[in-house]
Amino acid sequence: MRHLLLAATALFALAPAAAQDKKTDKSAALNSILDQGMNHSEVMVTAQYMADVIGPRLTNSPAMRLAEGWTQSQFSRWGLRNVHKEGFEFGRGWSIERSSVRMLTPRPIQLTAIPIAWTPGTSGPLTAPVIVAPMKEEKDFAKWRGKLSGKIVMLTLPGTGDEPDEAPFRRLSGDDLSKLDRFQQPTYDPAATDRRLKRLDYAQKLDAFLKSEGAVAYATMSYRDGKLVSGEGYLFGKGETPALPGVQIAAEDYRRLARLAKVGPAPTLEINSDVRFDDSDTQAYNIIAEIPGTDPKAGYVMAGAHLDSWVAGDGAADNGAGSAMIMEAARILAAAGVRPRRTIRFALWVGEEQGILGSMAYVEQHLATRGGAGDGAGGKGMQRYYGFSNRWPVTPLPGYKDLTAYFNIDNGSGKLRGLYAERNPAAVPILREWLAPFAAMGANTVALRPTGGTDHVFLQQIGIQGFQFIQDPLDYESRIHHSSIDTFDHLKAEDMRQGSTILASVLLSAANADQALPRPPLPTQPAVTDPFAYSDDDD
Amino acid sequence: MRHLLLAATALFALAPAAAQDKKTDKSAALNSILDQGMNHSEVMVTAQYMADVIGPRLTNSPAMRLAEGWTQSQFSRWGLRNVHKEGFEFGRGWSIERSSVRMLTPRPIQLTAIPIAWTPGTSGPLTAPVIVAPMKEEKDFAKWRGKLSGKIVMLTLPGTGDEPDEAPFRRLSGDDLSKLDRFQQPTYDPAATDRRLKRLDYAQKLDAFLKSEGAVAYATMSYRDGKLVSGEGYLFGKGETPALPGVQIAAEDYRRLARLAKVGPAPTLEINSDVRFDDSDTQAYNIIAEIPGTDPKAGYVMAGAHLDSWVAGDGAADNGAGSAMIMEAARILAAAGVRPRRTIRFALWVGEEQGILGSMAYVEQHLATRGGAGDGAGGKGMQRYYGFSNRWPVTPLPGYKDLTAYFNIDNGSGKLRGLYAERNPAAVPILREWLAPFAAMGANTVALRPTGGTDHVFLQQIGIQGFQFIQDPLDYESRIHHSSIDTFDHLKAEDMRQGSTILASVLLSAANADQALPRPPLPTQPAVTDPFAYSDDDD
């Protein structure tokens, strides 16, 4: 503390007048941001509307269409500019109107279950006995041929419950944070991608097999216990829709069915799945809004979070929280009246849960293309996700150099604890400087560790500096993520206020930085990390 | 270890022939018990049938009637004697055939909810808007008069979610165990009982108020979060049945409704509660079975667990586990062919969840009566529970002296770690001796602490030595107890085998003990612990 004060005094003493003015402006802006973010916060109002009123936002569902319109109108209301949506081809809209799964025999009991996304409905109650027929790859089909007719097929091996012997809710300690700061060498194995791509059509092969065998529906088991169900289902493309209705059943209920089927007559289920398809528009839309920069040649910085969610809960922590923090940072900066050098762009992505498709579309529309003709570009559904990273070369588009930094939020609703520098040591001192004012809010860690699985990865892969915020984990991974309790009441208002405020400040720092962040070289196809490795999947 | 060996050698050297034979018999019996309990266990088969096939066993429900018959036939099949049921007046049978609660506006969503026990059904779908009208005592009615007509009344103040920052699943450490060994002074405050009795009619007053105001149904919030619902509802007596259907809604769903109602038009719910009453027999039945003793004058020892459960889950840990351990101990002892000096009686209690009514009935039928005429004896429902402890004098029945020790199991499905000596230091060395063979199974703690809330308390209150087993907590209190995940898959087979084996051995030791346990004096009305205290409830 003392050290910082001395440093500040020294800086004042030595700074020339222009720098002095700039510093005063910077302080004034920071104070305005803090005032807006802490004393006039709207982040929880935004998050509540998104989670409670709009509800879960499966890409292209009617709720997502509402969210597309509402988020744009909020951005406009707050004075953001260039508010618009950017479409890309996605697939079908799908939503649940009503759903019920009951065991009828040996005794009546209401089960906890959810229709699997993009599977068809049952056209009224469907009643049939179950059969436990665990299958996870094509070669498992042989064992069950001739045995599935008229049955509801239970596909998951039931297994046993877990022992929750760690605290579900936690915050990062100083020790936890220091462990994040490690360089992790990248790996590259295009053969693994090829294997994944080969397996992608399993869901369709399974559906065709079940249909040809005369099965009437299928059921999977939730991967969590505690009666939580979660989102699954990836056949969202037009023409991909499975023939059979599918439901995911809570682990306790699924395992009870499996035990009953093991020791006595197979239980009978009644499935009533009233789901709706909407093909009126197969495009999905990213939402964009801006605070224009004063220097048209300086490019832009961007922050994004995915607006889409699964449907088991309300998409509150994943990722209504991130979306609300993005929106609130935009509101804060607009209300604070900042005039940044670079444009600050805000993005709400869609299709993230189906393969990070929204930010991928942004890359392809604005930043760079990957690969040549005939090597998977424009493939549909999950194939696009797995194929994208493996297409070479990366060819920059005219807008490539304009985006100087991207910040992503997608680790639940916990407060920000710093930034992942994502294997980029040159960025570390600059990120540290931007986070410095927030040490007392616990948010000044910069950790070299890379993170994956969300909307900064495809930007990174083309050489754009995409960073993700470190967040307190709370009970996100342990019970909220993708689950039926991803609801607003598990968000913490203090965390959300802290996050939006810091995000706003970091964005402003990045937009006003004298120099853009040092950019890595344009990525070219790396060497295979272990060319001598064999895989279990080799066949 | 060495010390024990020396002691054993010394005993051999000094023991006369008869004692030597007795010791050999004891070892042979212990080995047979271990062999049956560990190598030929049926405890999980018993528990699975009870939880999965029969399901939850609300007292007097059709499932409980099945359980009454099935448990008796199992006892008989295993060679137990004097297998029979003992009835007492209880109330109505009630069961759920089908149940669904949906939010219709502002968007369709299936809620997690359960009908409140012994409330009437809805006669098809009931659709109405909600009103959040928190009430918990009669004086709260005034605030809501004239506002409830046509509404589904949400009675619980929503509050906020918890932060589960402790591990839900745990076992007792040595340190935990040592902390249990403390004498806790008893307290006595008959005024508190009077106040409780006065409040008991609140549920009926609330129902009458809601009905008179034209409300159409009511909803409460589950006291756990994580989408768990649990059992509640105590108006089980004939003539007590409420007019309005009631549902308990999962916390996440309830709080969402409350928030929506706060910020916009009240959401509309559709409740479809198809429940069934059965008044064909208003008696509830304890199940009794025995291994006869060789000395008709030596009395009997008894172990019990309650067979009844709530209906949100399957009553697996509460208390299918305890019931299965009691049944398995009976099977083990029968299969081991033991011929104990005292009779060993096994009891499966009912009505425990409605006020420990089954074991109370046993006390009144076999052991002692409490109080004189006109002071609450034979009162109905929960009044009996609160009134019983406060009726004086205790008048022993002819069978009073026959019961020399009672052992209760009702702390979930965790393995046994020892016995609560329940404020009885004179019993400690004897209990220690009986548990000594099980040190290596982690079950040799004897802790002076008293425990309450289950079927040994009314025996203790009349001066019978009732003990409860210490058990590893697992995730019983944290998430299983009374909840919708009280299912078989949360039981641990190794724990259940250990428990049944040790219970069998302890029972045999108690039945064969040279002397009965030292019995406390006949309880008389104690001094009021703090006659100078005022209470918030004084009015």
From TrEMBL, chains A, B:
Region described as Disordered: 516-539
Naturally occurring in which organism (per UniProt): Sphingomonas aerophila
Cell compartments where the protein resides: Endoplasmic reticulum; Golgi apparatus; Lysosome; Secreted
Peptidase M28 domain sequence ranges: 286-502
GO cellular component: extracellular space; lysosome
Single GO molecular function: metallodipeptidase activity
Lineage, opening ranks: Bacteria, Pseudomonadati, Pseudomonadota, Alphaproteobacteria, Sphingomonadales
Signal peptide (residue range): 1-19
Chain segments annotated as coiled-coil in the UniProt record: none
Subunit structure: Homodimer. The monomeric form is inactive while the homodimer is active.
Name recorded for this polypeptide: Carboxypeptidase Q
Gene Ontology biological process: peptide catabolic process; proteolysis
Domain of life: Bacteria
Chief site of localization: endoplasmic reticulum
InterPro entries associated with the record: CPQ, Peptidase_M28
Keyword Nucleotide-binding: no
Keyword terms, alphabetized: Carboxypeptidase, Endoplasmic reticulum, Glycoprotein, Golgi apparatus, Hydrolase, Lysosome, Metal-binding, Metalloprotease, Protease, Secreted, Signal, Zinc, Zymogen
